[in-house]
Specification:
alpha/beta, 28 helices, flat
Length: about 950
């Protein structure tokens, strides 16, 4: 940081440089350490008054740390210098809240002597200034990420900074950033040099800060100390009044207020203090639930923002779900809320629930909150949310929290995953998604969360090809099947229906994970046992022979049988099947139970207790129950954790007391009972499918402990490849990019140790013969016309041509059958060892990032869609699993006596292609087809490479909230 006199000299030189266009793509909303939001944007000439006002609110000590001397006010020359930038060699960024500056950062490009410079000088001096009231919120750390990204974009590779030794907070910002740095001390100041190239540590630091900030922003929404319901009507009914009543009945532990603009002054609604505006409340409000018509929402948001409200749940409809006008209204809502540092759930939301005993928040339209439990539930649909709450309630499952995000204009599933990742009250995460705004980030967060707790996802609109009307998300070229495969790679449990979501959630929340796929089956119905056995085989499990306890089995027989199965070391899980058995009573009439299993309430409870006893005293293995027409059994198993309201007449069912801020809240719903809950299913297929998902997830968890590594191979010329790409991407190349020539593609791939078999054009028979002589016999003659490429079934390929005569004959037959040489574009290529034809592809999608794909060439991949996908950079474990995950993988491993191919060489090829695409984001697609994998080695016969200016991948840049 320079002294004022030095900066003034530099400012005179600055004025001689031309300014560039305002870079609006540098604007970003960010979440700070305390969960609040702020906006980062370039400083412009019209910011002079804001800069002066900002500087006046900075303490003398902070000014001294910035300028190394007392500097009480900015001169007119200072203001001009700090607000006029060329956005190349001199850049200033401001962080704003409510439109006002709370912090600034700037860099000035310098040469080796520390003097002002222009490109190609690649070093810049950087300096920060943060208002004292906002220090400690992570402001400088966020600004460093963004100014660093701007500098890299402008060709700056290093930052230099001078900091007084007493300014320990600023020194910590630099040292904690994770960049490679050098540190020295001279002339009474600490001099720091930061290499701006991202490192594994800097990326890890950035993501850890992102997780803490976003989790904190969700926590502020789910655990507020005070809530105001804006739009609570004076008469019962209506959305606002309903939410107010639900908050009261749910026993919310914080301060509760109602806001109704029609009130003349302070009043009360349902015993709750009511006011015309938030500003009239006179006490801090953490969360506002907005339930007013869409046209009145901006006024309510402004009232909240100006009085320190931290977050909003917007129930109001009339936004992006209603078309273009509503979409713009939704964007304006998000911009307005973020300008005040607030985050939004909604609009068009169903609400939020937090069952923690210290909170008891039911800020939703659900009349009966679920009991406290270990499941976190997130939905993007209010209707589906209602159905899921009812289904979980009916089957006895409790929730830790529920979030229905509606149009999810701001808070999304990504934010909720950040919160639930380390939430001690949540063991299982259930998500109903209709769109994924940032699949790359979602996959990353889901992988990290799935490593510690199950994440179960059902996605609506899989085949519609578009997001719901209310969801504004970036377009993606990647098919849904590919996204689904990437989610499974990340450990996400993908299910197809909300019923399966509940089925899997109940098992994962109530039972331990299985150690393997071996399943014992026992019950009192041989037929039902066989159905369970078949279902296990269908799901890829390894069932043991079903054990028939006979229809006369008693609850004690079930207890003994289950205990024995759980102690059997040859099984990892148990499926119990049960049907009612009606015997003849002692009087000769049907209706007695003869000691067997009854469908009565008492019989169901007795059997449920027997199963619970067996599971409680045996080794930790999952148990599931399949019942047919035994609702009493299912009810008994669920009753241990029932969330049903008590029957009328019981003390708990009495109406909640009218509540004021001093009135004690009503009792919370009963929490889940301790111990494992045994889930019950009305069909064997449903039970086994849920169990199979648990088996696959447990296997992924074990493998995730060793994710593999990205090997370092010899023969990689990263610098040469970068230079070749730079030469190819001339200024004339637009964003659509270019396709390299076959020779250029071969050269680029060769720099990463991927040799492509040469192909020589053969426009005439004589030139074909000449090409064959150069390559050496035997050769192949192939057409390359687009309509014949990769279509050997049309006869456009002649193989094993051992000499000139065979080659000329093949050439004549080819042209006579398919057309003239000018149409066919024939080529000659040397024969390679025979093997299995495969295809390797890599493509960059703006939303997902780089994806590596592999399959068998021809019908398996094109007709059946049998392709396996992995995110780049892939590890050795990733590609090994990728190859083996194909349905047609047996063809690579010696199917029906054929020779196994060289999968080690294939794995190396995949890893080299992954490394190539990862190192050079300008490579937007690679297609190697076919790749012949032989018993020893492989051969790449064709390659296509497309280049384009590197796309912006938001998940790899500085932290920012999405803006749709």
């Amino acid at each position: 940081m320079r002294k004022p006199s030095d900066q003034q000299d530099q400012g005179q030189r600055d004025g001689e440089r031309p300014e560039h266009a305002y870079p609006d793509h540098w604007e970003a909303d960010v979440v700070l350490r305390d969960g609040g939001t702020a906006r980062i944007r370039p400083i412009a000439a019209e910011d002079a008054d804001r800069l002066v006002s900002f500087y006046e609110q900075v303490s003398d000590e902070s000014k001294y740390y910035r300028f190394f001397a007392p500097y009480p006010r900015l001169s007119a020359k200072d203001v001009h210098r700090f607000t006029h930038h060329d956005y190349v060699d001199r850049v200033g960024l401001a962080m704003t809240v409510g439109g006002e500056f709370i912090a600034t950062v700037r860099y000035d490009r310098i040469d080796a002597d520390g003097m002002p410079a222009t490109a190609p000088a690649d070093e810049a001096e950087v300096a920060f200034l943060v208002q004292d009231a906002h220090q400690g919120r992570g402001v400088a750390s966020a600004l460093l990420e963004h100014i660093g990204a701007v500098a890299r974009e402008r060709g700056i590779r290093r930052f230099a900074a001078e900091v007084l030794p007493a300014n320990t907070k600023m020194i910590k910002v630099f040292t904690d950033a994770g960049y490679t740095q050098k540190r020295s001390f001279a002339d009474g100041a600490v001099r720091l040099h930061l290499d701006l190239e991202p490192t594994d540590r800097s990326l890890a630091v950035q993501r850890a800060r992102e997780q803490r900030a976003e989790a904190r922003s969700v926590q502020r929404l789910l655990a507020p100390g005070s809530v105001a319901v804006i739009g609570a009507g004076r008469r019962p009914g209506g959305v606002g009044r309903t939410v107010l009543r639900n908050l009261l009945d749910g026993g919310y532990t914080g301060r509760l207020y109602a806001v109704n603009s029609a009130l003349a002054g302070p009043s009360a609604l349902d015993g709750v203090p009511a006011f015309p505006t938030v500003g009239d409340i006179g006490h801090p409000v953490d969360l506002a639930v907005v339930a007013v018509p869409a046209e009145r929402v901006p006024e309510a948001v402004a009232d909240c923002g100006e009085h320190g409200v931290q977050g909003l749940v917007v129930l109001s409809a009339g936004y992006a779900e209603q078309g273009a006008e509503g979409r713009e209204r939704q964007r304006a809502l998000v911009r307005q809320a973020r300008s005040y540092g607030m985050r939004i759930i909604g609009p068009n939301a169903f609400g939020v629930i937090n069952t923690a005993d210290a909170v008891r928040l039911n800020a939703s339209l659900a009349p009966h909150p679920p009991a406290p439990g270990r499941i976190g539930l997130f939905t993007q649909s209010g209707a589906i949310g209602i159905a899921l709450l009812a289904g979980l309630h009916r089957r006895g499952a409790g929730l830790s929290a529920f979030v229905s995000a509606g149009n999810r204009a701001d808070v999304s599933g990504n934010d909720i995953l950040q919160y639930w990742y380390e939430d001690p009250d949540t063991d299982v995460v259930l998500l109903y998604l209709e769109s994924i705004g940032n699949p790359r980030k979602f996959t990353r967060l889901a992988r990290r969360t799935a490593a510690v707790k199950p994440v179960v996802v059902v996605k609506g609109g899989r085949h519609s090809g578009s997001a719901p009307p209310g969801h504004a998300v970036p377009a993606t070229r990647i098919p849904h099947t590919t996204v689904a495969a990437l989610l499974r790679q990340a450990g996400v449990i993908r299910v197809d229906t909300v019923t399966e979501l509940v089925d899997a959630g109940l098992l994962l929340a109530g039972q331990p994970l299985p150690a393997g796929p071996r399943v014992a089956i026992l019950g009192n119905s041989e037929s039902l046992g066989l159905l369970a056995y078949d279902a296990c085989l269908t799901e890829g499990l390894r069932p043991l022979r079903p054990r028939d306890l006979t229809t006369s089995a008693t609850p004690e027989d079930f207890r003994a049988g289950l205990t024995e199965a759980l102690h059997d070391e040859s099984c990892d899980a148990v499926v119990v099947t049960a049907i009612p058995w009606v015997a003849e009573g002692s009087d000769g009439h049907r209706g007695g139970y003869g000691g067997g299993v009854s469908e009565s309430a008492d019989g169901g409870e007795v059997l449920a207790e027997a199963l619970r006893q067996a599971a409680a005293t045996a080794p930790a293995k999952p148990v599931v129950v399949v019942h047919v027409e035994m609702g009493a059994l299912a009810d008994a198993l669920a009753s241990a954790t029932s969330t049903a309201p008590p029957p009328p007449g019981t003390p708990e069912a009495a109406p909640a007391a009218v509540r004021t801020t001093e009135t004690a809240p009503p009792a919370a719903p009963a929490p889940e009972a301790p111990g494992h809950r045994i889930p019950a299913y009305p069909a064997a297929e449903r039970a086994v499918r849920a169990l199979a998902e648990a088996v696959r997830y447990a296997g992924w968890r074990r493998q995730a402990a060793d994710p593999g590594r990205v090997p370092e191979y010899e023969g990689i010329d990263e610098g040469g490849a970068a230079a070749q790409i730079e030469r190819a991407l001339t200024p004339e190349v637009d964003e659509r990019g270019i396709t390299l020539t076959p020779e250029g593609a071969g050269e680029l791939l060769g720099r990463y140790g991927v040799p492509v078999q040469p192909v020589l054009p053969a426009p005439t028979p004589d030139e074909a013969v000449d090409a064959a002589r150069r390559l050496g016999y035997p050769v192949a003659l192939k057409t390359t016309a687009p309509h014949l490429r990769h279509r050997p079934d049309l006869g456009g390929v002649r193989l094993d041509l051992a000499g000139e005569e065979q080659l000329r004959t093949a050439y004549r037959e080819l042209t006579e059958a398919l057309g003239k040489p000018a149409e066919l574009q024939p080529v000659v290529q040397a024969m390679v060892p025979r093997g299995v034809d495969t295809v390797v592809r890599a493509a960059i999608d703006p939303a997902v990032g780089a994806v590596l794909s592999f399959g068998l060439a021809g019908a398996p991949s094109e007709l059946l869609g049998d392709m396996a996908h992995r995110l780049v950079p892939a590890t050795d474990r990733d590609v090994a699993e990728q190859i083996r995950s194909l349905r047609t993988a047996p063809l690579l491993f010696g199917w029906r006596g054929s020779a196994p191919v060289d999968t080690a060489a294939l794995e190396e090829l995949l890893l080299r292609v992954s490394r190539l695409v990862h190192d050079h984001p300008e490579i937007v697609s690679v297609a190697l087809e076919p790749v012949i994998v032989a018993p020893r080695g492989l051969s790449v016969l064709g390659a296509t490479v497309r280049l384009a200016p590197a796309p912006a991948l938001g998940d790899l840049g500085p932290r920012r909230l999405p803006s749709y």
